Fold this sequence. Notes:
Layout: E1 8-17, E2 28-34, E3 46-53, H1 61-81, E4 88-91, E5 103-107, E6 113-120, H2 124-128, H3 132-139, E7 159-165, E8 171-178, H4 184-205, E9 229-232, H5 238-245, E10 247-255, H6 262-276, E11 285-291, E12 297-303, H7 309-315, E13 325-327, E14 346-352, E15 358-364, E16 369-377
Parallel strand pairs: 2-12, 6-7, 11-15
Antiparallel strand pairs: 1-6, 1-9, 2-5, 3-8, 3-14, 4-5, 7-8, 10-13, 10-16, 11-12, 15-16
Helix pairs in contact: 1-4, 6-7
Amino acid sequence: MAASAPMLVHVESLQTAVPMRMAGAGKSLPIAVSGPPLTAAELQRRFRAVLYYRGAGAEVEAAARERAAWVKESLCAALVDHPEMAGRLRRRGDGNDDDDGRLWEVKLRDTGVRLVQASVEATMAEFLEARGVDRERKEAALALWTDVDVHEPDICAPLFMQLTRFLDGGYAVGVSCSLLLADPLSLFGFLKSWARKNTEMQAQSKHVAHPVIQYTHYIQSPGAAKRVKSGTSTLGTATATAAEDSTTTVLFGAPDTTSDHRALAAACVGMASKRLGGAAKEPPRFTVMARDSSKRLHVQTCGTVDVDYGDREACHGHGHGLAARVAQWSEAGLEDLALEGSKPVHVSYSISPSADEGLVVVMPAGGAELLVSVTVPNYM
């Protein structure tokens, strides 16, 4: 089968959306790393979501500018209630070599979310015609990411949001978020809050003397913008694309019955590998990311042999009645995230792990249930 033609994506604006007022300044969320210190590659572990929306046909320039303005203004408003999303990753501790790379935190500094405005030389239908790995590679350009610097992480944004318009008036909202900043379900909660703010602010603007259109001069005109960067739709880091191509993610729902998630993680890794059959392999080592009741994020690296097999069997439902079920991202409700009165026509999800290792993210799903994402290497 012939390779699909490249689709040019033009980055027209790089901005920062900061909270409308000070929120959470001086506070921090601790991160504890058990095992080897985090490497530069491991700092790039992230979750990506892209939501596609239909537009009203080929749009006039003013309509595209107004949408971009609303996105930024409502994002700034939503960050007031979610100050952690505007934070930065930072090492903590006294500089002791034994602690270096193991003690981290998310510092709430009101430094903002990176906001990208872009356009693609294709219709949304043409873009969505791609399937499987081909589409995943293209979508890397719809949710821009800049690698976190291992030496100066606090100058790097761990959350990017991108607004990309297609030739037919359709548009995409892409989000890339460090898993050290927020797990996917926490990110979904923030996006839902942002969407509500967007709807509320647009409704209120109909009854005030100075609607948000006054802010659109801050947004570069899409038609006349000086392009910051252009390239094919495989933009993004080559290492991240390769890692996504060589891994598969499976989701499980499980009862929240223990604070030690290693046995649950090991069991889910085995279940994912078994479910994928010959397409994946059970990695000898995997990392577990989970928050405790005090909101401290624990990053634990361990091997499948490190966890007692009896405990792993318990996670399969033997002995303690703990049974994991296969789950879907759609259960989290992102497909219902309405903008401008319309729900997305398609939503994609992706986790970028470190190559050749397993990655398990344990997330509170409400009530007494956990959502567990398991990313395992594929057989090449």
